[in-house]
């Protein structure tokens, strides 16, 4: 593993991302990651690369409807880069971007059975809610996740390496 560089995503990153996301997640996930996310929200999304290889990504949205909210739609890290702090760094960079736009909270959702995601978000300071049944229609349950205040510099300092 070489040095990891994190940069703003561009629409052209889409094909690389969907080319690995199912393998990285270990199940089909591309259905929820339409090209429109990088076409319209690339400025709030991040790509991590090492030696011209995709190491991770975060697709984020600065909500146009809830002006205090920054939403993390998808995040994934190459299994070879897991436990390196890359996921935490992607979130930290997204929090910085969100704060610079006046956002005060970050939100995400995860499957009630995704214990790794729940543990990661808890470690990042997110509050994990009880499962929300039929969140995206019948049998599509989710656990809403919400960060602490993004305006608090202590929050970010406590979670950096």
Automatic annotation (TrEMBL):
Family matches, as InterPro entries: Acyl_CoA_acyltransferase, GNAT_dom
Q: Name one GO molecular function term.
A: acyltransferase activity, transferring groups other than amino-acyl groups
Q: Which Pfam families is this protein grouped with? A: Acetyltransf_1
Domain annotation N-acetyltransferase: ranges: 4-146
- Supply the PANTHER family for this chain: N-ACETYLTRANSFERASE, RIBOSOMAL-PROTEIN-ALANINE ACETYLTRANSFERASE
> What is the recorded name of this protein?
N-acetyltransferase domain-containing protein
State the organism of origin.
Acrocarpospora corrugata
Taxonomy of the source species: Bacteria, Bacillati, Actinomycetota, Actinomycetes, Streptosporangiales
């Amino acid at each position: 593993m070489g040095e990891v560089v994190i940069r703003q995503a561009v629409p052209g990153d889409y094909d690389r991302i969907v080319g690995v996301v199912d393998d990285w997640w270990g199940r089909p996930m591309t259905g929820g990651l339409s090209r429109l996310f990088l076409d319209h929200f690339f400025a709030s999304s991040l790509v991590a690369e090492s030696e011209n290889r995709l190491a991770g990504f975060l697709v984020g949205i600065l909500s146009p409807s809830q002006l205090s909210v920054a939403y993390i739609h998808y995040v994934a890290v190459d299994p070879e880069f897991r436990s390196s702090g890359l996921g935490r760094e992607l979130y930290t960079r997204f929090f910085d971007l969100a704060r610079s736009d006046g956002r005060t909270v970050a939100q995400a959702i995860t499957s009630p059975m995704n214990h790794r995601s729940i543990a990661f978000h808890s470690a990042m300071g997110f509050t994990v809610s009880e499962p929300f049944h039929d969140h995206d229609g019948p049998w599509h349950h989710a656990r809403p996740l919400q960060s602490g205040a993004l305006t608090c510099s202590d929050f970010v300092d406590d979670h950096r390496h």
